[in-house]
Every structure is written in structure tokens, then in C-alpha cells.
Design goal:
alpha+beta, about 280 residues, globular, two-stranded antiparallel sheet, 6 helices, Urate Oxidase, 8-stranded antiparallel β-sheet, 10 strands
Length: about 280
């Protein structure tokens, strides 16, 4: 049991310059005894309002140096403070505020919300067990207008999809990775590096791009690049929900439409999921 959608803004000041972290937290506990469920005995139950207040107090006292560290702080607090807690899980996601710039100069106290992917993390721990930390990015929508196709697929009497060697690749990504054993990581730096890997593997070189023969191959390229460049990542899951675009037939309007006007096909949409990890991790 626990408290969901604990939303708050943490403001930090350094002289005249101000910094913000707006987050949403979900904190769940499992107690050593299920007596509140079986007997209606609430003597071990930490009220969910107390859970909410603890999260807010930790934000006040510790600040939020990174989402991962804040989730770890929540787990550590419940494990060290309450002997009746057998398991704790903290989920934290961030509102994507970015500092405003005017003529290249960063503003000291103004921000803009930029929907270019939502950062999140999870930390969970069992009593006498290891602390496990996951992180990720969701609602990251990417598009490339060429250098994508889909050919040579299996066909039977139900197949109506034509082969395409030049199409729009557009989709919303969900990426989640595991750090394995957590050490003194710079979580902010690692998250930014992984995000850069995702964008690079999706788009390819800026002057020419890189051909994608399928959504599945693009997903795998993202995972392989992350694992090759970020040794702290042990396992990475990528989900791609793709959006199709159809060319509008303008013959009846007396116009030739050479893929200049297209309409999105909202539903149904395609989806692919892949989880990839290091061999040493799975053997362990």
C-alpha cells in the first residue's frame, strides 16, 4: 500500500539564481505482517498521509540532487526508521522545466516547460536485500521523414501492406534501464548521456542520417549503443509505439501529392518491445 501522485515543486536558490525541480512521487510499502488485511489490526500501518509528509520533509531537508538519489533517500528513510517495513518502492518522475534563455543568456529565475521526454526513476529495496535502481525516459516522441523503410516481410492471403523503401518513421519511446549494483554514480550525467545515445541511434549522422529497415532494428540499435557507451547500465528495455502517416490522395483536386501532405493514422498503431542486457548480468 502507499501514496500515489505526491506532487510538489522544490525551489533552490543560489544568490539571485534559482533552480526548480517539480516532481511526482509514488511511495509504496509492504509490511512484515498482513494483519491489517487479515484482522483489521492497523497497529503497524503507517498512514498514507504520513508517507506523503515524509516525502515532502525529505525534499525539504535533502533537496533533489537527482531523481535517483531522491528515490534512494526515500527507500533508506523507511528502511531505517520503521522496523515493520519489509519492502519499499519509490517512483519519481520530473516535469520537464528548462531554464529560459534570452539572446543566449540564461535567465536567473524563469523557466519553460518543454515536452521532450519525461525523466523518471524507481528505487526498491527489501529488508536485508540489495537496493535496486532503475531509471528511464518516457513520452519521448521522435520523427525522421526519410531513411526508413519496411521490405521483405512475411506475406500471405491476409497481407495488404505494400513494401516501402522510403517512409516516415515516427513514434513515442519508453526506455527503462537498470543500474545493477548502485555505487557513487553521477545519475544526472548518465541520464543525459543515455538520452544522447537514444537520439543519435534514432537519427544517425546529422548530414545524412542512417537507414532504418524496421522499427525493431531501430530499437536494437538504441540498446546496443547505450550498452556500448554506458557501462553502468546492465539491462535496457525499449518500447516504441509508432505512428503511421498516409499520403493524401489529391488527384480529385487536380494536384499531385508527392509525400508533401500526409495524415497520421492514430489507431491502431504498431508497437514493438525489446529488453537487452549484458550476458554477465543474466548469468548472475
Amino acid at each position: 500500500y502507499g501514496k500515489n501522485t505526491i506532487k510538489f515543486l522544490r525551489l533552490h536558490k543560489e544568490g539571485k539564481k534559482q533552480f526548480v525541480k517539480e516532481v511526482e512521487v509514488c511511495a509504496h510499502l509492504r509490511l512484515t505482517s498482513p494483519q491489517e488485511y487479515l484482522e483489521g489490526n492497523n497497529s503497524l500501518v503507517i498512514p498514507t498521509d504520513t508517507i506523503k509528509n515524509i516525502v515532502l520533509v525529505l525534499a525539504k531537508k535533502n533537496g533533489i540532487s537527482s531523481l535517483e538519489q531522491f528515490a534512494i533517500d526515500i527507500c533508506n528513510h523507511f528502511m531505517t526508521t520503521f522496523c515493520q517495513v519489509a519492502y519499499v518502492k519509490a517512483y519519481v518522475q520530473e516535469v520537464p522545466w528548462q531554464r529560459l534563455h534570452e539572446d543566449g543568456v540564461p535567465h536567473i529565475h524563469s523557466f519553460i516547460c518543454v515536452p521532450d521526454g519525461i525523466r523518471f526513476c524507481e528505487a526498491e529495496q527489501c529488508r536485508n536485500g540489495p537496493l535496486i535502481v532503475f531509471a528511464g525516459i518516457k513520452d519521448l516522441k521522435l520523427m525522421k521523414t526519410t531513411q526508413s523503410g519496411f521490405e521483405g516481410f512475411y506475406k500471405n492471403e491476409h497481407t495488404t501492406l505494400p513494401e516501402r523503401h522510403d517512409r516516415i518513421l515516427c513514434g513515442e519511446f519508453f526506455c527503462k534501464w537498470s543500474y545493477g549494483e548502485c555505487k557513487d554514480f553521477d545519475f544526472n550525467c548518465i541520464w543525459k548521456k543515455i538520452r544522447e545515445c537514444i537520439l543519435e541511434a534514432f537519427a544517425g549522422p546529422p548530414d545524412c542520417g542512417e537507414y532504418s529497415p524496421s522499427y525493431q532494428k531501430t530499437v536494437n540499435c538504441i540498446q546496443m549503443l547505450v550498452l556500448s557507451r554506458v557501462p553502468q547500465v546492465q539491462v535496457i528495455e525499449v518500447v516504441l509505439n509508432n505512428t503511421f502517416y498516409n499520403v493524401v490522395d489529391m488527384k480529385n483536386l487536380g494536384l499531385t501529392n508527392d509525400k508533401e501532405v500526409l495524415v497520421p493514422v492514430e489507431t491502431p498503431y504498431g508497437s514493438c518491445t525489446c529488453t537487452l542486457g549484458r550476458k554477465t548480468f543474466f548469468e548472475a
